From TrEMBL:
E.C. designation(s): 2.10.1.1
Pathway(s) it belongs to: Cofactor biosynthesis; molybdopterin biosynthesis
Stated role: Catalyzes the insertion of molybdate into adenylated molybdopterin with the concomitant release of AMP.
MoaB/Mog domain span: 179-316
Keyword terms, alphabetized: Magnesium, Metal-binding, Molybdenum, Molybdenum cofactor biosynthesis, Transferase
Protein name from the UniProt record: Molybdopterin molybdenumtransferase
A cellular component annotation (GO) from this entry: cytosol
Class in the EC hierarchy, top level: transferase
């Protein structure tokens, strides 16, 4: 009965509780650190900018010398970015370029569009206010201030920030090792001839790519036949040295579904069957030191359970602090009077008005609809939806990578 299944929230919270972050750290090149997870909080060893810096191409002045329109000053020096001028003599200006340090004594930059040059002199058509067009020393980052917190997943922007204060290497958690296999006698690889009753193994491509985007080390064990002893042996092999064993297929209740029984033999099963659609037969357990996550074989079910459960689980193992993004609330551009007792995740897109519209094919095998979709509409158990209602929407942009 659907009512006796474990809820989405309960399942997710149990999984995340089980996901103890890996402890080992390593120091790696900042250039190679994209998507890795910081193991220590970083503080800035320098102030940024290090000194007062011109924010515009123009003329560095003392404001007191340009107190009225039409003020005229001789230009006594030229300071390109990367060089340092001499102290600014009162009653003079310095030609200066964006990014160059302000000469001592100057307290503003007048952009060149607002002056007129006459020989060695400039005439000002603008009266600057103190520190106009100047980036003050330490205004971006104060010396010693915290720039990135332990548990941050390093985005390109975060790498740029670390580099801006001089980090050539970064302390990160080691990568998580995931052993992957698919089960199913019907599966053949693309490139092979397709026999009667056979299908191509699409989950292998799906899951490898999803794991790689998360920065995991993937050990791919290919396809395992639907036989109990072979499934047991495959689980043993996969668990050896892996942090996580991830499987697809064979977690339902048919006689050919051996994965759950094999996990019970080789380790223990902690969680199985949730009140969600798709993805009901999701399974979690342990195989010695390794975690076991069993995804349903239907490709859409495998995808949905991966992004909703496996992704936050793996991020937590990597030491990421914030692993769950709350859903957005958007208007429903559809009506769905028939409510399912399970929490549903429907393939959807936002239309030009920002309303969620559904793909007409919501079957668990419909991969094309997953390519069409931009996200998932989440419908709580037994909740009919009318056009215009607010619904939870989880954009793929927040569920992938
Ligand atoms: N009597 C019941 N039958 C089923 C139930 C149930 O509760 N009672 N649950 C259904 C649900 S929901 C799902 S989801 C599936 C999941 O079953 P399995 O995880 O055991 O998956 P399989 O039976 O192995 O495969 C299901 C389906 O997906 C195709 N598949 C499998 N692996 C791949 C792959 N690597 N690439 C592409 N496609 C794959 C497979 O051919 C099947 O069509 O069970 C329902 N049944
Ligand atoms: O709930 Mo199953 O995961 O739909 O096809």
């Amino acid at each position: 009965m659907a009512q006796s299944l474990m809820s989405f929230e309960e399942g997710l919270s149990r999984l995340l509780t089980a996901a103890e972050p890996v402890l080992e750290e390593e120091l790696i090149e900042t250039l190679e650190a994209e998507r890795r997870v910081l193991s220590e909080t970083l503080y800035s060893p320098i102030a940024l900018p290090r000194q007062d810096t011109a924010a515009m191409d123009g003329y560095a002045v003392r404001c007191a010398d340009v107190a009225h329109l039409g003020a005229r000053l001789p230009v006594r020096q030229r300071i390109p970015a990367g060089s340092v001028g001499v102290p600014l003599e009162p009653g003079s200006a310095a030609r200066i370029f964006t990014g160059a340090p302000l000469p001592e004594g100057a307290d503003a930059v007048v952009m060149q569009e607002r002056v007129e040059v006459e020989g060695d002199e400039v005439i000002f058509h603008h009266v600057p206010y103190p520190w106009e067009s100047v980036r003050r020393a330490g205004s971006e980052i104060a010396l010693g201030s915290e720039i990135l917190t332990a548990g941050t997943r390093l985005s390109p922007q975060a790498l740029a920030l670390a580099a801006a204060v001089g980090y050539a290497t970064l302390p990160v958690r080691r990568r998580v090792r995931v052993a992957l296999f698919s089960t199913g006698d019907e599966l053949v690889m693309p490139g092979q001839p397709l026999g009667p009753g056979q299908i191509y193994n699409s989950n292998r491509y799906l899951l490898r790519a999803l794991l790689k985007e998360l920065g995991c080390l993937v050990e791919d064990h290919g396809v395992v036949p639907d036989r109990f002893e072979e499934t047991r042996a495959a689980l043993r092999r996969a668990a050896d040295g892996a942090d996580v064993v991830l499987t697809s297929g064979g977690v339902s209740v048919g006689e050919e579904d051996h994965v759950v029984a094999a996990v019970r033999q080789e380790g223990r099963l902690d969680l199985w069957k949730l009140a969600i659609k798709p993805g009901k037969p999701l399974a979690y357990g342990r195989l010695g030191a390794a975690h076991f996550l069993g995804l349903p074989g239907n490709p859409v079910s495998a995808f949905v359970t991966f992004v909703l459960f496996v992704r936050p689980f793996l991020l937590r193992l990597q030491g990421v602090r914030e692993v769950l993004d709350p859903p957005l609330w958007v208007e429903a551009g559809f009506t769905r009077p028939k409510a399912d007792p399970r929490r549903e995740f429907l393939r959807a897109r936002l239309d030009v008005r920002g309303r969620a519209v559904l793909h007409p094919d919501q079957g668990s095998a419909m991969l094309a609809s997953l390519v069409w979709a931009d996200g998932l509409v989440e419908v709580p158990p037994a909740t009919p939806i009318r056009e215009g209602d607010l619904v939870r929407y989880r954009p793929f942009a927040r569920l992938l990578g």
